Each structure stands twice: as C-alpha cells, then as structure tokens.
Amino acid sequence: MHSRLIAGAIVLAALAAAFAATAQTNVYRWVDKDGKVHFSDTPPPEDAKSVSQKRLGGGYTEEAQLPYATQMAVKRNPVTLYTASGCGTPCDRGRDLLSNRGVPFSERNAGGSNAEREALVKLAGSAEVPLLMVGENKLRGYDEDQWNSALDGGGYPRTRLPSQPATVPQQAAASPRPAGEATPPSGSAPAR
User: Fold this and answer.
1) What does the pLDDT look like over 56-89, one tens digit per residue?
2) CA neighbor of 93 nearest in space, from 30, 40, 144
3) Strand, coil or helix: 63
4) Cβ atoms within 10 Å of 144's Cβ, excluding its own
5) Are residues 89 and 34 part of one domain?
C-alpha cells in the first residue's frame, strides 16, 4: 500500500510539472500614442511605441528570444544576403553589420552554381554581390548608410540588446575565398 502512495505521488508530481511547463504566456509592454504604458498578454496595436515582450511561466524565461520589434520586422521584411566566394571584404562587412545589429538573416551563395547565379540575375538584373534584400527592397553592393536605412525602414532595431546574441546566417552558404585570391577593392563584386 505504501508503494502505491509513493507511485501516486510521483504521477501527480509529473502531471503538475507538465502542466507548469505548458502554462507559459507572453507579456507585452508598450506605450500608446498618449504616452500611457500598457501591459497585456495580447500583441499591441500597430501604432504602439517602445514595445517589449517577455515569455513568462514554466519556471524560466527564454534568454535568446528576439525583441518583439525584431520578431515583427522578420515577419514583414525578411532579410536575405546574397554573397559569393570572390566577394571578400564587402560581403564580410555586410554580414558583420547584420550580425552586430542583431538582424536574423539568411545567406545565399550566388557563386555556388550556375543555377544560383542565374537566380540572382533574374532577381536583381545582375550577378553583383553583395546584394541585400530587406523585404522587397534590393540593395546592390555594400553601403553601410544605405543598408542601415533599409533595415531601419524594415522595422529592425538599430542595435541588439545586451543579452541578445549576435546573429549568424540561417543558411551559411558562403564559401571561403581560394588562397591567394585578391579582395575586390569596391563595395561589390560579380558572383563567380
């Protein structure tokens, strides 16, 4: 009988733990147009300012969670970086800019095959890399001011939060430059 009570207590404890793990919720904090601060478990309206989001419950808070503004920017204006093996410094600087701002992005290697190169030409009209896509906005070549402006327009925060890790490409398809290959001097290079 004693072992049945212990077994029953273990089952109840397991059920309680499972319930607690699923009892998580998101809490949003935002400022409305009149400057009033709101807290809610539903997403804020489009015109809200200073939006932040926390996941609560289940005994922990996710540390690597993206800020709410970044989550919304990713949904509305996904970022894709087109690179190639001969791109060198311009592609590296572009990748660093995205990572330092905490912008989630995918990377495509336009020099990986003829099909990838043709897809880039069809998309952008040329095989020039780097090419940054912010939603439907196409930016040829690396220009820090233009890229920052496009990312700002896409709704991405200027800096990542101190607790937010730097981002890395979702599909790191860029291949390293062959030994002895020179770095192109300009802000762009043809995909090879």
Assistant:
1) 444 333 434 788 888 899 999 999 999 998 899 9
2) 144
3) coil
4) 11
5) no
- pLDDT for 22: 44
State residue 173's pLDDT score: 40
Q: Is 105 helix (H, G, I), strand (E, B) or coil?
A: strand
Given a contact cutoff of 8 angstroms between Cβ atoms, the answer to whether 127 and 120 are in contact is yes
Phi then psi for residue 26, to 5 deg, are -100, 140
- Whether 151 is in a domain gets the answer yes
SS3 readout for 22-59: HCCEEEEEEECCCCCEEEECCCCCCCCEEEEEEEECCC
Residues 134, 45: one domain?
Answer: no
Rounded CA gap, 192 and 189, in Å?
Answer: 9
C-alpha pair distances (Å), 8 with each of 1, 14, 17, 21: 11, 10, 14, 20
CA atoms of 51 and 37, how far apart (whole Å): 10
Would you tell me how many other CB atoms lie within 10 Å of the CB of residue 98? 23
User: Are 147 and 132 contacting, i.e. CB atoms less than 8 angstroms apart?
Assistant: yes
pLDDT for the residue 182: 38
Beta bridge partners of 131: 82, 140
Q: Do both 103 and 76 map to the same domain?
A: yes
